[in-house]
What does this fold into?
Amino acid sequence: MLSDSDSLARAVDIFSRAPYMMHLGVNVRAAGEGWVEAELSLTEWMQQQDGVAHAGIGTSLADHAMGTAAYTMMEPGYTPLSVEISIRLLRPARGNRLRCIARVIKPGRRVSSVEADVWSETLDGGSTHVMRGNATMAVVASETI
It folds into this structure.
């Protein structure tokens, strides 16, 4: 079992090695074994034509956070790969930031079940639950990728 500081280090590592997550400006806020909290600041280029965040931005955040939550429970030398992902859009994402909390529902030797919730947040502290996701993550030996 990993300590929270070891889980946080693993979470920061997997996010920092993902160029797309770095391009989006995702930051890991906290992590523990089987869970991760990550956020990104919303900018104009991330918006739809109607001024709300594009669903693909939140989906990307949730997908990577769910994989990272699974990764915190994997043995060294293994990495997560999304096998299936389902996202429910609850409300339009308006605000300054998206925050995601992902957690493992059932870890496994070959696949893990994971879920995530995404909130849009405003500078004045307002928060709206905008997405809920579920995923199946394959547990893959790193050298086979």
Observations:
- Residues 55-71 form the longest helix (17 residues).
- The chain has three helices and six strands.
- The longest strand covers residues 127-141.
- The CA atoms of residues 84 and 103 lie 16 Å apart.
